[in-house]
């Protein structure tokens, strides 16, 4: 509990997490408001309200990366490891705090998007009843948490803010999309890429009475079912974290 308290204090006494939180909420909720306000011919749905969840996800991943790379940049990680020689426990505590915080931001962003859509178009039916609707809203927090673990692990491996952020952004926003362009095998490979699979959890098996194919985030064609897709994404994040913990214990701070 002491380690968790220490990492919580570290996280909330720096500016970057707060600014990233504001940016993530503003982007996701702001886009939901814009969609509900501009498209007056169609009533917003749960799916359309979550259209911009991936924009906020990018910001949260940057926050998670900076949570560890700034410690390496300013050398505070050395003092931490000297005070607490168990590096694995220290980094796991930081990961837990960052993941929980990311999950909270994700839930605020998703339900805030639903609320603002309902506020702008009160006649819209935005009740959360089906399994798809619950995954599309509450599930955003789970995806944000796993993505934060993924990004923090990259930060531990790279240790430099610019390089780690660049890797996280390029991979999540470009690599997985460009893989599909590989002739013959590209689409098959993409179906197993982590973030593409994670999107299946949020968009897979929609309720046809509340979601047209073109509404909301682009549906994922990943092979796994929604909950197995989430498990796969979490497993990738945890595996990457395990590699980063091994590396952190093998080299100098």
Please explain how this structure is put together.
The protein has 253 residues and is an all-alpha fold. It has one domain (2-250). The chain has 11 helices and no strands. The radius of gyration is 19 Å and the shape is globular. The protein starts with a helix and ends with a helix. The mean pLDDT is 89.
Strand percent estimate = under 5%
Please mark out the parts with pLDDT under 50 across 5 or more consecutive residues, or reply none.
Answer: none
The largest sheet, given as strand count, sense and whether it forms a barrel, is: none
Shape: globular
Overall pLDDT:
89
Q: Give the beta-strand count.
A: 0
Radius of gyration: 19 Å
Q: Structurally, how many domains make up the residues?
A: 1
Alpha carbon gap, first and last residue:
23 Å
Number of helices: 11
Order of helices and strands: HHHHHHHHHHH
Structural class: mainly alpha
Q: What fraction, in percent, of the residue positions are helical?
A: over 70%
List its traits.
single chain, 253 residues, 75% helix
Q: Summarize this, please?
A:
The protein contains 11 helices and no strands.
How is this fold's topology laid out?
Elements: H1 2-12, H2 15-38, H3 46-49, H4 53-74, H5 76-83, H6 87-120, H7 131-158, H8 161-178, H9 186-190, H10 194-203, H11 226-250
